Amino acid sequence: MRLLFYTAGSNAESWLEALRRVLPEAHIDGWPSALAGEADYALVWKPPVELLRALGQVKAIFNLGAGVDSVPDVFALPPDVRLVRLEDAGMAEQMAEYVSHAVLRRYREFDAYAEQQRLSEWRQRPRRPKSEFIVGILGLGVLGTAVATALAPFGFPLRAWSRTHKLLSGVATSTGMSELDGFLAGVRLLVCLLPLTSQTQGLLDRARLSRLPQGAYVVNVSRGGLLIDDDLLVLLDNDRLAGATLDVFRDEPLPPEHRFWHHPRVTLTPHVSAVTLVEESVAQIAAKIRCLEAGRPITGVVGREYGY
């Protein structure tokens, strides 16, 4: 069994070491030194188009991440070749931690107390009713479900919106574009966990963000392309929205001249909400390869018509 490996990241040796340990029966080649046409499986992160075009009749292409927007020309791949994304692989727990922190920081007004400390001001702020602090989750896949489950014990009213109908205990769910505006109305803190597709690109523009109530807060931990930066900035500048926690951006690294860096109402982190864990990811990929070799079905196969 021959594996073709490529990553645009800086941790190639960590991946290769783990792959050789978990799949000792496999012969692993790196691009561009290897002949892509001889590979049985391709394991890639942000591959060049030339690599994909050189692939022969591989049994599957494994994307070394949850979002396949990093794979160029998805629709140009042979239709009978499976494109497989990572599922969880340690990311759900990280995402639940990150979002729970962002929600609690906003609800308990720790940013306001930090400003009061800077001013040496001792003042207890009135507590807002938790029943009025509706948390809305855009996207109810593996990560969205993990976030909703983590937030449930805190007692916030929870809403979730997804492309297809889904049910989750304790969460009011909405489905489809016709229900999106109604979902946004009343949400005090919006968490974006949607994949980046042709349908979600630029989804959170000024019109949709304005559906949120006055003083709402936005947390984006999925992809920067879902959000129109300038529209968010306008709503922050005119006090329509109270603030935002952003972990993902259209251009990464975020350019030093971008206003997000120094905006008083923006908290940002460098795409760390749920990093890919190599050991967990390799274990998942190895298990799926062995299933395919044995003729058994696997999960995580991307529906190309939807982009995830």
Q: Any overview of this molecule?
A:
The protein is α/β, with parallel strands linked by helices and 308 residues long. The chain contains nine helices and twelve strands. The chain has two domains: 106 residues, Rossmann fold, CATH 3.40.50; 178 residues, Rossmann fold (3-Layer(aba) Sandwich), CATH 3.40.50.720. The strands form two sheets. The protein has a seven-stranded parallel β-sheet with strand order 8-7-6-9-10-11-12. A five-stranded parallel β-sheet has the order 2-1-3-4-5, covered by helices on one side. Helix 1 crosses helix 9. The chain starts with a strand and ends in a 15-residue tail after the last helix.
Topology:
Layout: E1 2-7, H1 12-22, E2 27-30, E3 41-45, H2 49-54, E4 60-63, E5 82-84, H3 91-107, H4 110-118, E6 135-138, H5 142-151, E7 158-162, E8 171-175, H6 180-184, E9 189-192, H7 206-209, E10 216-220, H8 229-237, E11 241-246, E12 266-268, H9 278-293
CATH superfamily of the largest domain: NAD(P)-binding Rossmann-like Domain
The overall pLDDT, averaged over residues, is: 95
What share of residues is helical? 25-40%
The proportion of strand residues reads 15-25%
Please give the domain count: 2
Overall CATH class of the largest domain: Alpha Beta
Distance between the termini: 27 Å
Give a count of the beta strands, DSSP E runs of length 2 or more.
12
SSE class: alpha/beta
Order of helices and strands: EHEEHEEHHEHEEHEHEHEEH
**Total number of helical segments?**
9
